[in-house]
Amino acid sequence: VKVEIITIGDELLDGTRVDTNTAYLGSRLAALGAEIVRATTVPDSAEAVRDAIERALEAADLVVVTGGLGPTADDRTKEVAARLQGRRLVLDEEILARVREHFEGRGARMPEVNVAQAMIPEGARAIENRVGTAPGLVLEHGDGLLVLLPGVPSEMKPMVDGYLVPFLEGRGLRRTWEERLLRTTGLAESEIAERIGPVVKRLARTDVAYLPATTGVDLRITARGGTRKEAAKAADRALDVIAAKLDPYVYARGGESLEEVVAYLLVMARRSVAVAESCTGGRLGWLLTRVPGSSEYFAGGVVAYSNDLKRRLLGVRAATLKTAGAVSQEVAIEMARGVRAKARADYGVAITGIAGPGGGSPEKPVGLVYVAVHWDGGELSVEHRFGGGRDGVRERAAQAALELLRRVLLGIADD
Ligand code: ATP
Ligand code: MG
Question: How far apart are CA 408 and CA 415, in angstroms?
């Protein structure tokens, strides 16, 4: 199948906005095995849009257009397409009801101009817009297809994934690749490469992409096969082989965040957690409460920045602060123990460290962080030396505390 992509917008041509729709459509359609023969960007002029669509319909079996579906006067795509095909624009009551609902659901009245969004070329099929108001449209054109999508990327993407791709698959275009995601924390990209390099080399028709972030490295595994089923098998096998090499640094096979994984483990074990934070200023509590339903396992937290508060609220001993210093293994553990007791939680987690840029010394440099977990019958703490500036250190410290808790919950913290 030959595909041409047309994107519309003055702002795409004058550099105000980068055209991301072409890249998105190109990657999705190419993955289905379609041949992208051309991508064109035209200004918001009815003439330019008409010329582009007309030319594309001659060259391609499938023409996908984004932009110009809005309710305002400069949005002419539908009108142009209808005229080109000799179709009338007719009012679609179902779409009108949905557009009206979109406004009324937010307590607003629908502006009259939005009625235009319910006008569609006769015989067109509408693709529901769950994010905005303009529906996408599918128009048959001889043996070919003309698909009109909104310009707003967040509206266009779900239509491509939820409608266009399955629709094309139904027409015999098949995806023959599968993707898997593996999420790790605590290993640098180079360390991962060293561990998995040899096995990845032996995997046929499989690519591994490194997606590094401050808090860890994600690996995207893409496997191709003769069929999608074959590809899925190959992808799962690759996932197992790679994950085995990275144990215990893999916290998720799939898209879950570390806080979601920890939340799941706590809920399954019916355990609660409380946190005591110094240099992260509440980030750990924020992460743990990002997950819906967090009241089930999160008792609360204390941001104890000063030594005084560490003593008074968490019961850290003055002697420990004096001999070991606020940033030390000992204080981290006493903070974890203290908050656990105060909150009557099953697990206490603590962080103390030097985020910088000031406050470091030769013995205790910027980036030195101690995380600790205390529970009934045990305590553990780990020393880290993080880079990445103040924000980087704080993000990594919170992630490391979560990771230690994950390992404690799984009973693999001593590995
Ligand atoms: P609306 O209902 O919002 O008017 P529309 O279908 O008419 O939607 P446009 O008006 O062309 O779409 O664009 C809406 C928004 O989406 C603008 O902010 C525009 O810059 C952005 N946009 C449009 N096309 C692209 C593209 N190809 N890549 C990235 N952003 C785009
Ligand atoms: Mg518009």
Answer: 10
